[in-house]
């Protein structure tokens, strides 16, 4: 009799508390959810959803497109240098020159790090400007007037004062010079430019003045006879 009662009691407990569970995990691009299904013997399904915090993905930083200003005449070079007192790097090159092509890659990196550019369709100013002049039949006389003996050649100006030049065309040397000058105080930079301009001998200024005579213009307005 007692054994029969124990069997009946065990049957009742099994019918009321017997549950099986199944765990299913799903993930989406924005969040992760874990669904836990509880199923009893009557096939009634209960669902509990646990939502994990969404993973925030930061958008990639906008990419800067460096700006290297093309120049083709002495007038363009003079006006470009004279309109801004920032340091200005100028590269003289030829499209058929293999070394110029290698230097051009490093020069573009300099323009990316320190020069003007475009970010998210907006023009941004850098601490320096970068320009270039391609050797051609049109620009050959300009390079002669500036005493450019070979390509590639790199120069660094502040205003119309040339303060650095490299015939070996090592952009690394130009980069180091730029970094050093950008650390100077304004008055220290002015003093440095004055010292360098004495060695420059005013080559650009002289070439620009001579271009007036080459184009038939009179530069000496006080003595018209000097223009004949």
TrEMBL record:
Record's keyword annotation contains Signal: yes
UniProt keyword Signal present: yes
Domain of life: Eukaryota
Signal peptide boundaries: 1-18
Keyword annotations of the record: Signal
Domain Thioredoxin: 46-183
PROSITE patterns for this protein: THIOREDOXIN_2
A Pfam family that the UniProt record links to this protein: Thioredoxin
CDD domains per UniProt: TRX_family
UniProt name for this protein: Thioredoxin domain-containing protein
